[in-house]
Structure formats: structure tokens, C-alpha cells
């Protein structure tokens, strides 16, 4: 396990389950999000047609991913955008740091980006003397709290109004504690507007990258993304290689699916399309735009036909909002950048099963995540596949290495021997009869209150009740008048 990964899901879950305030916060938020999403898709036929289109767009893009990435680079370069490739998060951090240092940037304003969270970019820049401030309100709140996001779309969903009020009063100079949401928002806006005006560079994520035109598409509700990418003289966008789509015609169905699935909105407030730096005669926009394309293990995921479906994700978080496990323990329990159902299939593949091999087991396999996924990712099937890979890894034919990083990390030789014995007994009738008779004979000699048997016998004890006839049941339910037997 990497030294910075910390306790696993199973070790952290009890604390979350024993935190009633956390559970209330999530329950209230998830109920609202589920209701809003359902209101956006009242017609099942329309929903089925739209998600079929969204899934087809992503599937087609993935089928041509290497070609589309080269085409994207070619178009962006022709438009004046500088493209950088990073195999690991360490390489991506070094690229971003180098660009900022070359430009002499000391302050950075950031739009929302899960890939930058994956890179731990803020901490990396801080170690090199560059201050990065989150401009998304939710991200700004958790940055003040020194926490990580607990949700892909709403990073501070685990906090209620009172907790945020206390935090602002503590962290923002001159602000008194208030329960007024508008005052809290205005206080954050005052701080962030000054940051926008004085930042040396802006950093953002990317929702979709269009190979046909070399266009970076960003969607948001607060306007911070637009300010981060237009006010500073330098704009750096970071994204995973799976965000590329083929044409501009592919964007409308995805824009119809993403906000409806994420927040229950028909469309986000802002849809930003960036294809170049500021051109001659234009009055605003950055003078330089850079795009960092991060692999970060995605190429390995892409090599497997089944697991490659993971890369369809458009980061709407609908699977989280409907997950009975996530709703009860929250995002921090996963101790990963991507929590919830999508995280349970993505994190083990990116970080390895040694670090996150228990996460695929943190699921009821109820199929709610698959039913609401706007691009039809078969999450339960992939969870089962990863459970299998954790104990019996599939190997890549060419290299004989596990398909999934750290495949087989969860294998227990004791458990394997037990199941091997079970198979031996259950495939040989004579041996089965001998073993079951021996167990029955031996079990009769074990005291019912023995330490190893007490819980077993208690759970399996038959309830005691007085037998009743059909006549008794009929009379109890009012079908018969009281008559003598």
C-alpha cells in the first residue's frame, strides 16, 4: 500500500456509520438530488434514447482513442494551444510547475478539476512556493477546512450550513458568524474576486475535448471557471486522456445528460468552449493556453475490452447519489479521489488492488448505479470482475503481467485451501457423505455455549412459537366469527 494512502475503506467505515450528523447531511442531500434528477427524466422512453446516444458517443470515442488523441493534439497545436503529455501524475505536476515557473507565476486561481485532485496539484505547487486558490465555492470551502472532496460534483456535500458558517468565521478575517447563506456566499465572492483579479495564472479541468475542432469544453454554474480561464494571462487545462470525443455534434447529447444526471438541471449556467489563446483584436482571454493530457494508468485500463467501459464516465456522480453504501458512509470513507460506485471500479485500476482491493466489495450489487448511469457503464459487472481479479488475476498474454495493477493482491492462501477442500468434498459423493456424517457426529459433542459456537448457535436457533391451525389464522384476520372448536 502506498504510504500516503492511509486506512482502507473497511477500517474507516465504522467511524462514518457512527457519525449521525454525517449520515443526516448525506441523507438529506441525496434525497434532494435523486428527486431533482427523476424530475428531469419523466419519460422513460426519452431517457432510454438519450442515454443510448450518450453511451454510443463515448463508446465510439474510446474505440478510436489513440487516433482521436493525435487528432486533438494536431488541431489544438494549429489553434495555438500547447499540448503536453504526462504518463504519471508526477510528470503532470512537473509539467504544470515548469510552465508556471517559466512564466514567473506565483499565484494561481483554480477552477474545479478532479484530475488536479488526482495529481495533488495544490500541495505540489505549495511545496514550490506557488499559492493555488480554489475558486469553485465547494472546493474553496474544503480548501479552507484542509479536507479533500467527498463528492465529484459537490465537494463539500458532507457539511451543513452551520459547519460552513463556523469555518468561514474562523478562516475569513473580519467575518462574523452568520447563518445567512447569501451572506456566506457574498463573503466567499469578495475574497475570490480579488484572487481572480490578481492571479498570475488560471488552472482548470476539462469536461470534454473535441478532436474535430480542437475545442476544450467546460461546464459550470458559478462563473468561476470562466473567470479562471479568461482573466489571468496564462491558462493551463489538465484532463485525463479519456475525455476526448470525436466531433462537436457529440457534445449536445452529453450536455443534455450530464447536468440533468448530476444536479437535476436541464443545462448548466455556463458552457465554455476554448479553442485558442487570445487572438489579435480580442479584448480578453489568456495570451497562452496549455493542455496537459494525463494517462495516470488509463492506458492500462483501456487495454482490457471489458474494463475499458470504466473510461466512459462523464463524472456526473449520479451513481453516488443513488448508492446505498455511499449515502451512509460518505466520500471520505473511501480515502480516494473518486469515491462511490465509479470510484470502486476506477480507483483499484488506477492505484492498484493492493491499495484499494477492498473497495469493489463495498457494494450491495443492487444495480442502482447502472440504472442511472447516463452512459450505461455496467458498474456491478465491473465490480464483480475486479473482485475476481483481486484473488485470481487475468494475465496479459504478451507480458504475462496482471491486467489489473496488483492483481491477486487480496488472495488468501487459507481461504483458497478452504474452497479447494469444499470443491473436493462436494464433487465426490462418497467423500461428501463421510465428511457430513463426521461433522454431524462431532457437532453433537460440542457444547452449545462453547466460545466458537455460541454466536453460531444463537443465530441459527429456531424461534419458539405455539403452533396454529388455519382456523386460528382465519379467526385472527377477521374472516370468521368466534365459534367454539
Automatic annotation (TrEMBL):
<dbReference type="GO" id="GO:0006089">
    <property type="term" value="P:lactate metabolic process"/>
</dbReference>
<dbReference type="InterPro" id="IPR024569">
    <property type="entry name" value="LutB_C"/>
</dbReference>
<keyword id="KW-0004">4Fe-4S</keyword>
<dbReference type="Pfam" id="PF11870">
    <property type="entry name" value="LutB_C"/>
</dbReference>
<keyword id="KW-0411">Iron-sulfur</keyword>
<feature type="domain" description="4Fe-4S ferredoxin-type">
    <location>
        <begin position="303"/>
        <end position="333"/>
    </location>
</feature>
<dbReference type="InterPro" id="IPR004452">
    <property type="entry name" value="LutB/LldF"/>
</dbReference>
<dbReference type="InterPro" id="IPR024185">
    <property type="entry name" value="FTHF_cligase-like_sf"/>
</dbReference>
<dbReference type="InterPro" id="IPR009051">
    <property type="entry name" value="Helical_ferredxn"/>
</dbReference>
<keyword id="KW-0813">Transport</keyword>
<dbReference type="Pfam" id="PF02589">
    <property type="entry name" value="LUD_dom"/>
</dbReference>
<keyword id="KW-0677">Repeat</keyword>
<keyword id="KW-0408">Iron</keyword>
<protein>
    <submittedName>
        <fullName>Iron-sulfur cluster-binding protein</fullName>
    </submittedName>
</protein>
<dbReference type="InterPro" id="IPR017900">
    <property type="entry name" value="4Fe4S_Fe_S_CS"/>
</dbReference>
<dbReference type="GO" id="GO:0046872">
    <property type="term" value="F:metal ion binding"/>
</dbReference>
<dbReference type="InterPro" id="IPR017896">
    <property type="entry name" value="4Fe4S_Fe-S-bd"/>
</dbReference>
<dbReference type="Pfam" id="PF13183">
    <property type="entry name" value="Fer4_8"/>
</dbReference>
<keyword id="KW-0249">Electron transport</keyword>
<dbReference type="InterPro" id="IPR037171">
    <property type="entry name" value="NagB/RpiA_transferase-like"/>
</dbReference>
<dbReference type="InterPro" id="IPR003741">
    <property type="entry name" value="LUD_dom"/>
</dbReference>
<keyword id="KW-0479">Metal-binding</keyword>
<dbReference type="GO" id="GO:0051539">
    <property type="term" value="F:4 iron, 4 sulfur cluster binding"/>
</dbReference>
Amino acid at each position: 500500500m502506498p504510504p500516503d494512502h492511509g486506512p482502507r475503506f473497511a477500517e474507516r467505515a465504522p467511524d462514518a456509520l457512527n457519525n449521525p450528523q454525517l449520515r443526516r447531511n448525506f441523507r438529506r442531500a441525496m434525497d434532494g438530488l435523486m428527486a431533482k434528477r427523476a424530475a428531469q427524466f419523466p419519460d422513460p422512453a426519452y431517457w432510454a434514447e438519450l442515454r443510448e446516444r450518450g453511451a454510443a458517443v463515448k463508446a465510439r470515442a474510446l474505440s478510436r482513442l489513440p487516433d482521436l488523441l493525435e487528432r486533438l493534439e494536431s488541431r489544438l497545436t494549429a489553434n495555438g494551444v500547447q499540448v503536453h503529455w504526462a504518463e504519471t501524475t508526477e510528470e503532470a505536476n512537473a509539467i504544470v510547475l515548469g510552465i508556471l515557473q517559466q512564466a514567473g507565476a506565483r499565484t494561481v486561481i483554480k477552477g474545479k478539476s478532479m484530475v488536479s485532485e488526482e495529481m495533488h496539484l495544490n500541495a505540489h505547487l505549495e511545496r514550490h512556493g506557488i499559492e493555488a486558490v480554489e475558486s469553485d465555492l465547494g472546493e474553496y470551502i474544503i480548501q479552507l477546512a484542509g479536507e479533500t472532496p467527498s463528492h465529484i460534483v459537490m465537494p463539500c456535500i458532507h457539511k451543513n450550513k452551520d459547519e460552513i458558517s463556523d469555518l468561514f468565521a474562523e478562516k475569513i478575517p473580519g467575518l462574523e458568524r452568520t447563518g445567512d447563506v447569501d451572506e456566506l456566499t457574498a463573503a466567499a465572492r469578495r475574497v475570490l474576486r480579488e484572487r481572480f483579479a490578481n492571479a498570475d495564472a488560471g488552472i482548470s479541468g476539462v469536461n470534454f475535448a473535441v478532436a474535430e475542432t480542437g475545442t476544450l469544453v467546460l461546464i459550470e454554474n458559478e462563473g468561476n471557471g470562466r473567470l479562471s480561464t479568461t482573466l489571468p494571462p496564462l491558462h493551463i487545462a489538465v484532463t485525463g486522456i479519456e475525455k476526448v470525443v470525436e466531433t462537436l455534434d457529440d457534445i449536445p447529447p452529453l450536455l443534455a445528460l450530464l447536468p440533468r444526471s448530476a444536479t437535476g438541471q436541464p443545462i448548466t449556467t455556463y458552457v465554455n468552449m476554448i479553442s485558442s489563446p487570445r487572438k489579435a483584436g480580442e479584448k480578453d482571454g489568456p495570451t497562452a493556453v496549455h493542455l496537459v493530457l494525463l494517462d495516470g494508468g488509463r492506458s492500462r485500463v483501456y487495454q482490457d475490452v471489458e474494463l475499458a467501459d470504466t473510461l466512459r464516465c462523464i463524472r456526473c456522480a449520479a451513481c453516488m447519489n443513488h448508492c446505498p453504501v455511499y449515502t451512509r458512509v460518505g466520500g471520505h470513507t473511501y480515502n480516494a479521489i473518486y469515491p462511490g460506485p465509479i470510484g470502486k471500479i476506477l480507483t483499484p485500476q488506477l492505484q492498484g488492488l493492493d491499495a484499494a482491493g477492498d473497495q469493489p466489495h463495498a457494494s450491495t450489487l443492487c444495480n442502482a448505479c447502472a440504472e442511472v448511469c447516463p452512459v450505461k457503464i455496467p458498474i456491478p459487472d465491473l465490480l464483480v470482475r475486479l473482485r475476481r481479479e483481486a484473488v485470481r488475476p487475468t494475465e496479459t498474454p504478451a507480458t504475462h503481467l496482471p491486467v489489473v495493477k496488483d492483481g491477486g493482491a487480496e488472495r488468501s492462501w487459507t481461504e483458497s485451501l478452504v474452497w479447494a477442500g469444499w470443491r473436493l468434498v462436494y464433487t465426490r459423493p462418497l467423500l461428501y457423505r463421510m465428511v457430513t456424517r463426521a461433522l454431524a457426529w462431532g457437532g453433537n459433542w460440542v457444547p452449545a455455549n462453547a466460545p466458537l459456537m455460541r454466536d453460531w448457535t444463537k443465530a441459527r436457533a429456531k424461534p419458539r412459537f405455539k403452533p396454529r391451525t388455519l382456523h386460528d389464522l382465519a379467526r385472527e384476520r377477521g374472516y370468521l366469527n368466534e365459534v367454539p372448536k
